Amino acid sequence: MRNEIDQIFDDFGNGFWNRPFRSLARLERDFSKSISAPAVDVAESDKAYEITAELPGLDEKNIDIKVANGGLTIKGEKREETEEKKKDYYVSERRYGTFERYFTLPESVNADKIEATFKNGVLKVVLPKTEEAQKPAKTINVKAA
User: Fold this and answer.
1) Are strands 63-68 and 48-54 parallel, antiparallel or unpaired?
2) Which CATH number goes with the domain that contains 112?
3) Which residues does the UniProt record annotate as the domain SHSP (predicted)?
4) Which are the contacts of 65, defined by CB distance < 8 A and separation ≥ 6?
5) Range of the structural domain that residue 66 is part of
6) Contact in structure between 69 and 88 (CB atoms under 8 Å)
7) Does one domain contain both 42 and 25?
8) In whole angstroms, how large is the CA radius of gyration of the chain?
9) Residue 112: inside a domain, yes or no?
10) Residues 94 and 115 in one domain
11) Which of 116, 118, 144, 140 is nearest to 48 (CA)?
12) What is the DSSP letter of 136?
């Protein structure tokens, strides 16, 4: 009798405790199919800021860049190649899906002159500075009072 009761509790425990973790594993699998935010470099020169993003495997038609409300948004999508769906994979580590990166723009950016280029999986966004921001800093001499 005791073994039967132990079995009931074991069955209850296994069913109850394992179910949530199974759904978490499924969620992790689904999440891992999307691509994460790309690695970026942000640099500054006297005349401009430059954002460089690594976007291997993307097509420039699937990259969207918008400037609004004092920020720059880069969105993209890497689409899965449908021809390869017919294959049976043992391991598939390539990622497909969408990403989005947002950058708050400094007031010194001339938003009307922003340009972007895409070559060999690397996106470069050049954000020119306004004429006022390009002026050299003025040195103020301190005088004894």
Assistant:
1) unpaired
2) 2.60.40.790
3) 31-145
4) 72, 73, 74, 75, 114, 116, 125
5) 36-133
6) no
7) no
8) 26
9) yes
10) yes
11) 116
12) P
pLDDT at 2: 60
Residue 18 has pLDDT above 60, yes or no: no
Q: What is the pLDDT of residue 29?
A: 42
CB neighbour list of residue 113: distance below 8 Å, 6 or more residues apart: 128
Q: pLDDT (tens digit, 9 = 90+) per residue, 32-50?
A: 444 577 889 999 999 999 9
Length of the chain equals: 145
78 and 7 within one domain:
no
b or e along 24-35 (b: 16 or more beta carbons within 10 Å of the residue's beta carbon)? Answer: eeeeeeeeeeeb
Q: What percent of the chain shows pLDDT beyond 90?
A: 43
- Domain count within the chain: 2
Token pair, residue 57, equals 């495997």
For residue 37, the one-letter residue type is: A
pTM above 0.90, yes or no: no
